[in-house]
Amino acid sequence: MADDSTARALIDATSQATNDIGGPLYFSPSTLAAGKERGLDGMRWYILGRGGVLGDVEAPVVQSAFAYFAPGMIAKLWNTAKETVPAREAGTAYLECFAEIGRAKLGDVDDATLAAYNDAATAVIAAADPAAYALFAGIAAEDRAVDAAGQAVQNMAILRELRGGAHLVGLLASGLTAPQGHAVKRPDDVATFGWADGVELPADAAERHAKADELTTDLLISAYSVLDDAGCAAFEAGTPVISDAICTG
After folding, report:
1. CA–CA distance from 231 to each of 7, 147, 153 (Å)?
2. C-alpha pair distances (Å), 220 with each of 10, 146, 163, 238
3. What is the pLDDT of residues 161-192, one digit of tens each?
4. Which parts of the chain sit beneath pLDDT 70?
5. How far is CA 10 from CA 71, 157, 218, in A?
6. What is the domain range of residue 114?
7. What is the pLDDT of residues 66-102, one digit of tens each?
8. What is the predicted pLDDT for the residue at 8?
9. What pLDDT score was predicted for residue 174?
10. How many domains does the chain have?
């Protein structure tokens, strides 16, 4: 098993590449087309598909998991979307969209790299404590693709939710709300996430956000520590290859 310093280095080396796949997965032409086929526009499909693993819950439950979005925006999109497509059905279909992207874009990645990444990612997912990480717990409970390319993208999406959940905990522990954390990291996207009047920030918001990032990694160390040296090497080698293929392929 990896010691804490090795696990921290691995997380630091791979987190950005894992995070980068969000937009290319959620808003790829093929994902958007799957939503359109079901009668949903891009944002409704995004909210219902990503949040559908939570089940047919009320909008405040979804908002608590997404957190960066204004409650009114989530309520409008979630409630109207699930009138068209059942939430659980959408969650399962959304995860399959990720597998399809893997099959389309990872053809040039050798099988050994994908298999080794999947072994490592699966071990981390299994070792992660899902407490407080609702979206991670929901998506990790879904069945995954049996083919290596499809599963690799799904695994990376699941690990993205793991870090996302940990980061929300880190923000709160650092004295920032989720919207404040979002405003620090993406100041130009505050209104896009439903905060038309902006978000007020404390004077030391940047310092608190940096602390939240450190806490996020602290929370993930135990899960990544399950990997041995070979697992760490496989995860570190596979992550950028898979991410680059998703983002630019």
Report:
1. 11, 20, 18
2. 11, 26, 7, 19
3. 999 999 999 999 999 999 999 999 999 999 99
4. 249
5. 35, 17, 12
6. 4-248
7. 999 999 999 999 999 999 999 999 999 999 999 999 9
8. 98
9. 98
10. 1
Measured N-to-C along each axis, helices 111-127 and 229-248 cross at an angle, to the nearest 10 degrees, of 110
Helix axes 178-185, 148-173, angle to 10 degrees: 110
Closest by Cα among 236, 243, 246, 244 to 13: 236
Instruction: State both tokens at 108.
Output: 């040039």
HSE at residue 85, side-chain half, CA atoms within 13 A, is 29
DSSP of 112-161: HHHHHHHHHHHHHHHHS--TT-HHHHHHHTS---SSHHHHHHHHHHHHHH
Please name the residue that has the structure tokens 């009668």: 39
User: In the structure encoding, which two tokens stand for residue 145, read together?
Assistant: 């693709």
What whole-number distance in Å separates Cα of residue 178 and Cα of residue 205? Answer: 12
Crossing angle (nearest 10°) for helices 4-20 and 229-248? 10
